[in-house]
Amino acid sequence: FFFCSGMERHRRAYSTLILLSVCCSASAFAPSAPVALLARRRTTCGLRMADDSYETSNGLAKQVVSGLTALVNRVMNRDVDEDEEGEDTRPPLTLTELRDGIEGDYRRKYLWTGDIDPALYDRDCVFTDPTLSFKGLRTFQKNLANLRPVIDFFVKEYDVELYTCALDEPNSEVRAEWRMVGTLELPWRPRVDLRGNTRFTYAPDKNNRIVDYYECWEDSAGQVLLNLLKPGGA
Q1: pLDDT digits (tens, 9 = 90+) for 195-226
Q2: Which residues contact 115 (CB under 8 A, 6 or more apart)?
Q3: Is the confidence at residue 10, as pLDDT, over 50?
Q4: Do residues 62 and 34 lie in contact, with contact meaning Cβ atoms separated by under 8 Å?
C-alpha cells in the first residue's frame, strides 16, 4: 500500500475513505447531505437502550459519513430515471405481500447490495439509520448508483442473516432483526460484524407501502468506524 506511486497512493487512500463512509452507513443509504426530516422524537427500535439510533449516535460519526458520501456523489455523479409525476397508480399491496417482499430484500442481502424492491416503498419514504436521515425513494436509488461500484470493488465476501421478520399490524409496522457480516478487500482485511433491527412503517392510505424506514444498530456508529481500522475487525 505504501510503495505505490504518489498518484496511486492518493487514489487508494481516497477509495479507502469512501469505503469507510459506505460501511459506516452499513445499509448504504447515503444521501448527499443529512436532512432534518424527523417530525417527532422516535423511540429506539426495541433493542437495548445502549443500542445506537439516529438520535443517540455520535455527531462526529454523522459528519464523517455525510461528508464523505457527499464527496462520492460529486465524483461519481450518476443518476437514475426521473420518477413519474402525478398520483401513484401502483396497485395496493396486501400485508402478506409487504412482509414477504421485505424478507426477499434480506435474501438478496440488501444491507450490502442496496437491492431493495422499490414497489414496497412510497415515493416520499424517509430512510433513517444511526448516521443518516433523508427523504425520497429516488434519493436512495440515485445514491446507491454512486456507491454500488465502490461496494462491489471492496466487498467480496459478505452475508446477511435474518433472524425475525414479523408483522405488527396494530402499529402498522414490520419489524426485522438481522446481522450483517463481511470482509473488506484492504491490506489489513477489516471485518464488519453488525447486528441490528429495522422498523418498516407502512401507511394503509398509501396502499400499504413503506413510508418510514428506521434502523438501529447494537454497536455505536463510532465503534463501527473504528473497527474498520483494525486488522480483521478485531
Answers
A1: 999 999 999 999 999 999 999 999 988 888 88
A2: 105, 108, 109
A3: no
A4: yes
Q: DSSP letters along 20-50, please?
A: HHHHHHSS----SS-----SSPPPP-SS-TT
Q: 233 or 10: whose pLDDT is higher? A: 233
4 closest CA partner among 189, 229, 187, 226? 187
Inter-residue contact 29 to 143 (CB < 8 Å): yes
Evaluate whether 181 touches 193 at the Cβ level (below 8 Å): yes
Neighbours of 2 (CB within 10 A): 6
Read off the pTM.
0.75
Cell, residue 5: 506511486
Q: What is the CA radius of gyration of the chain?
A: 18
Averaged pLDDT score across all residues of the chain: 77
b/e map 92-128, b = 16+ CB within 10 Å: ebeeeebbebbeebbeebbbbbbebeeebbbbebbbb
Element (H, E) at 178: strand 173-184
Q: How far from the centroid of its chain's Cα atoms is residue 87's Cα? A: 27
Whether 7 shows a pLDDT value over 70: the answer reads: no
Amino acid at 211: V
pLDDT at position 156 over 70: yes
Which region holds residue 23: left if phi is over 0, alpha if psi is between -120 and 50, else beta? Answer: alpha
* Per-position DSSP letters for 116-129, written without gaps between them: --GGGEEEEEEEE-
d(CA 131, CA 141): 18
Confidence check: pLDDT of 37 > 60? no
